[in-house]
Amino acid sequence: MDLEKMLPLGSDKLILRKGIESYLLPGQHSPWLPCDFTSTLHLAAEQKKDFPICLDQEIFQIAKEQHMRAENHMIYNILSCAEIECSNTLEDEYDTSLPGQALIYCPARQHIYSILLESAKDARGAYPVVKEWFVYAGNSLQQPDLVQPKQLPDGTPNLRTLWLNRSAEAEKQRLWTFLACFQLQDAAEELQALEIPFFVICSLLLYLVLQVDSLSLEDLNAFMAQALCLQEKSASQLADLQLAQIDSRAVQLGSVFVRGLGVLVMANSACGFPFRMEDLMPWHIFDGKLFQEKYHQVHRGCPLYQLLEHNELRCTKFQNLMDLICKVSSANGRKIQSRPRPSSFVIGNPGRGRGSHRRLLNRNPSPCHQPQCRERQWRGPQQSGSFSEFQPSGSQYRPRHQSLRRQFQFVPRWPR
């Protein structure tokens, strides 16, 4: 059957061909494309044969095979042409306190690029730049951001060591390199002592709190509380969870967190898989509805025992994990402030038909119901540098990424 004959009259056949072509790797062919159709991807691959990004053909072949089996994330794109794109995001244009997701995770991506492109440095030791097509506020996507890879502290290991060496020493190096991508190598000993789900969430929350000044103590509490409660929730319990309101900032924070898990997956692929990919999947540590519930409870001042659903063991684990996060943050010069927020939530008809509506509201909610069996508000352990010492300061948010855009260079857009 001729696919093009199925198109409506007046359709642009070239757009269809380019759409099909975008799913093909160099050297692959589609039965839906005519035999005489010259692939622009194929031409681009031919043009780059004399100047390959990845000089190690064994490594490149491994990356290609993993890519075709969906076993790595964005690695093949970097090794083949040093270009990646992320054309979707979920951000609130009215909330300027949170930087764009692409900017938040740019420092981590720069470290990942340095791992992948270590063998592609020129005679002067300079890395090739990476072309990024990432959506964020103010980026028209008319041309890519040219992002310079950034070497890891204490040097960047060889890909052959990370990917092919199975010695015990190489295993340690894989984990160290993974943490170094997020500037957490100094906390390796504390993080390694955790169960894998909590290693993952603590690593990601530590990276976020060091990159985003507007993250508050309450935000971190909500992330940690939902991760702990999620461990014992069934799929049916999560499906039956009902929310009275949806907070727009909580939606955006959840989106930032899930995007970060994607960056963890990318780093895991680049570092030779110190973790199973399954261990980094979001359903192990994050649920959007449960996070909304915990976010509202925390910002309304619910006591710890109610927040963690009357489970003493969870309370103890929560205190230990949050104390670790605050200790590492403090060692990096970041004191986490308490900033309870009124809700900014969307209300309206959940349907999509006529009359459905959404409104963004700011309200001061009533205090959380206090359980009779537990009256105390959790204040955390009292030692120096602990979770409990961080009190509201009223300081204004100072975006770390305000000048990041100016660090990029631009080139004319090429045919895609």
Overview of the molecule:
The chain has 416 residues and is mainly alpha-helical. The chain has helices at 13-21, 40-48, 57-68, 75-81, 101-104, 106-116, 159-164, 168-181, 188-192, 196-211, 217-230, 235-240, 248-270, 288-299, 304-307, 312-331; strands at residues 83-86, 130-134, 145-147, 246-247, 343-347, 359-363. The strands form 2 sheets. It has a 3-stranded mixed sheet. It has a 3-stranded antiparallel sheet with strand order 4-5-6. Residues 39-51 and 347-416 have low confidence and may be disordered.
Q: Can you give me a brief rundown of this structure?
A:
One of its GO terms (biological process) is peroxisome proliferator activated receptor signaling pathway. The chain has 416 residues and is mostly helical.
Number of helices: 16
Rounded to an integer in angstroms, the radius of gyration calculated over CA atoms is 24 Å
Ends: how far apart? 28 Å
The helix content, as a percent range, equals 40-55%
Which helices and strands, and how do they pair?
Elements: H1 13-21, H2 40-48, H3 57-68, H4 75-81, E1 83-86, H5 101-104, H6 106-116, E2 130-134, E3 145-147, H7 159-164, H8 168-181, H9 188-192, H10 196-211, H11 217-230, H12 235-240, E4 246-247, H13 248-270, H14 288-299, H15 304-307, H16 312-331, E5 343-347, E6 359-363
Parallel strand pairs: 1-2
Antiparallel strand pairs: 2-3, 4-5, 5-6
Helix pairs in contact: 3-4, 6-13, 10-11, 10-13, 10-16, 11-14, 11-16
Structural descriptors:
mainly alpha, Coact_PPARg, 416 residues, Constitutive coactivator of peroxisome proliferator-activated receptor gamma, 3-stranded antiparallel beta sheet, globular, 41% helix
